[in-house]
Write a structure and sequence with these properties.
Layout: E1 9-11, H1 21-24, E2 29-32, H2 48-59, E3 63-67, H3 72-82, E4 86-87, H4 95-105, E5 112-116, H5 119-129, E6 132-136, H6 147-164, E7 168-170
Parallel strand pairs: 1-6, 1-7, 2-3, 2-5, 3-4, 5-6
Bound molecules: magnesium ion (MG).
């Protein structure tokens, strides 16, 4: 049985997501985790390639929304630079923030992609709602100290995911 912890796809970073999967799966919007997915942990710096990637998706009329458990002060600084809506204090993996993001974009779960670097928050929550979930490698080693524990279990799970042949692995 496919576990709720298994993403649909596992790639190196958001730039590595093949654009063709969007029309192929009727994806009209993307919910994005912030820390270690769009930017490095607690950094407001957006790499030019990432800004370009956002612009490319907007030109394809794909809706975008940042979904972060972090506070508004932090999230708004990145969301404003990219000119995308956001949900802060999202309480992932509960459904609360995901449903808000879907409402903001006016989309159903089946037309929405979720990109995140954490299995037990981003992916778990996304799978429960039926989003097309994409796991990325965390951008760098630094992160919230409390995340270290879940990373230990993630490493074990990742080995199973990669060998399961149930996930489209492209790392
Ligand atoms: Mg993250």
């Amino acid at each position: 049985m496919r576990s709720f912890w298994y993403p649909k796809m596992y790639v190196k970073d958001l730039l590595s997501i093949p654009m063709e999967i969007l029309p192929q799966n009727n994806i009209k919007g993307i919910i994005l985790d912030l820390d270690n997915t769009v930017t490095e942990w607690n950094s407001n710096y957006i790499r030019p390639q990432v800004a370009q990637w956002f612009a490319e998706l907007k030109s394809r009329a794909v809706q975008l929304c940042i979904l972060s458990n972090n506070g508004e002060e932090r999230v708004v600084k990145v969301a404003e630079q990219l000119n995308v809506p956001y949900v802060h204090r999202a309480r992932k993996p509960t459904s609360y923030g995901y449903l808000r993001a879907l409402k903001i974009m006016g989309l159903q779960a089946e037309n929405t992609l979720l990109i995140g670097d954490q299995i037990f928050t981003d992916i778990w929550g996304g799978n429960r709602l039926g989003l097309f979930t994409v796991l990325v490698k965390p951008l760098n080693g630094k992160e919230f100290p409390g995340t270290k524990v879940s990373r230990f279990f993630e490493r074990i799970l990742l080995k199973k995911i990669v060998s399961s042949q149930l996930v489209d692995v492209r790392v």
